[in-house]
Design a protein that fits this description.
Elements: E1 28-30, E2 36-38, H1 39-49, E3 65-66
Antiparallel strand pairs: 1-2, 1-3
The structure holds zinc ion (ZN) (2 copies).
Length: about 80
Amino acid sequence: MGFELDRFNGDVDPDFKCNLCNKVLEDPLTTPCGHVFCAGCVLPWVVQQGSCPVNCQRISTKELNHVLPLKSPQPPR
Ligand SMILES: [Zn+2]
Ligand SMILES: [Zn+2]
């Protein structure tokens, strides 16, 4: 999962990279401990391991929250 970096011009902020696939976050989910991963990376991990993929604390899938996508913001109405 995740986008290939060469689809983006220039440098990519490391904050927008997934620690599991090392690619740009795709459909990012944030953990209660503040880590962010692709939904497709973190969901199977949390289901199996029951913890944050960087091993900082135990979490459940219910604690994962969607963060704003990196795409263009909603136009004002
Ligand atoms: Zn990922
Ligand atoms: Zn964490």
